[in-house]
Amino acid sequence: MKSSLNIYLSLDEAREELSRRRRDTELRRAVEAELGDYLLPELRDRPRSVISRHLSSPNHAYSFFYQAARYVGAMPFSWEFLSDTFSASNPDKRCLVSLRVIDANRKLIVNIASPYGNDGKKIHDVIKHSGKRLVEFHHRLLELSGHHIEHRDMTNWYRHFGKPCDYYYKFLLNFAVHGVFFEYFLTEDEEPREGVFTNRVVLPAIRKIQEKFGIMPMIVRWLPENQSEDEDFHWQSYPKPINDYILRYANEHKLTFREIEVSPDKLCYSKIPLPQQGDNHQFTKEETCS
Predict the structure, then answer these.
(1) Exposure string (b/e) for 43-63, b if CB count within 10 Å is 16 or more?
(2) Number of continuous H segments (helices) and E segments (strands) in the chain
(3) Looking at per-residue confidence, does 101 or 40 come out higher?
(4) Most exposed: 81, 115, 224, 271, by fewest CB within 10 Å?
């Protein structure tokens, strides 16, 4: 199923638009006046390509972002939200503790922390089986990956706002001139519940920017659409050096591997980091935008 959202730029379009808009001093001045203190400091002096993850981890999807950011010509930056609540029922958050690895062509999952034992904790408080913090483990993987991607916990930025509809306009306005946002917003045809967030929060924010400035934020679809389960496993798993490090870590700590079967035919839509059923931050009509 092809996405019905007409909000994405190709990499070539993003590269061209970013250069053109940053040269438009009048547009840039107007956007910066509207943003005020909510212009990300990382974007003020140089263009950035940005992803937003609960916690950065150098899987294949992250590596793809790194290469795409370099092509666009904007230094990569990873926006984290470490004070968000961990939920075992959220696929993106669970992947942070239930790692996808490959060993002798077998597709495996290994839990480096208890998904349900850490349910409801803040992500920065999630503890591995070894007793150490999950955040430190993934940041160590980033160091080993060799990807020079700056990452920062944006919790204080979020705390200036309340509901998503209050901050999403300012958030996306950062990508009107100063950077490119890599993401994929699900429609209601793909995922009914997450499509509500797109319709009630994302699209109104984009329309507001378009009405006020005559342009849309520069958003590039992060991963291809219509992913199979097999392809989804690939994006969530890790390049070989990191994969092998995780295998060694798991064996040293006597962790159990679980082999799984994934289908090359069954679709598995790419998820965005939105709360799922069981999270403390479920988006209801009142919590988003009526």
Answers:
(1) beeebbbbbbbbbbbbbbbbb
(2) 12, 8
(3) 101
(4) 224
Helix, strand, coil share of the chain (percent; to 5): 40, 15, 40
- 17 alpha-carbon distance from chain centroid: 22
> What is the rounded CA–CA span in Å between residue 122 and residue 142?
21
**Residue 168 placed within a domain:** yes
Percent of the chain having pLDDT more than 70? 87
Identity of residue 161: F
Query: What is the β-pairing status of strands 48-53 and 179-183?
Result: parallel
Domain-embedded: residue 286: no
Q: How many domains does the chain have?
A: 1
Two tokens at 224?
């291809």
Per residue in 66-85, pLDDT (tens digit) is 999 999 999 999 999 999 99
Flag whether 281 is in a domain. no
Helix H segments across 108-256?
134-145, 155-159, 164-173, 192-197, 203-213, 229-236, 240-252
Neighbours of 271 (CB within 10 A): 19
When pLDDT is averaged across residues 169-177 and rounded to a whole number, the result is 95
| pLDDT value of position 284 | 32
Q: What pTM value is reported for the model? A: 0.86
Tell me if 158 sits within 8 A of 191, measured CB to CB. no
Q: Containing H/E element for 252?
A: helix 240-252
Whether 231 maps to a domain, the answer reads yes
- Determine the residue type at 270: S
Beta-carbon neighbour count of residue 147 at 10 Å? 19
Evaluate whether 18 touches 73 at the Cβ level (below 8 Å). yes
Non-local CB neighbours of 92 within 8 Å, separated by 6+ positions: 53, 54, 271, 272, 273
**Domain containing residue 133:** 11-40+47-259
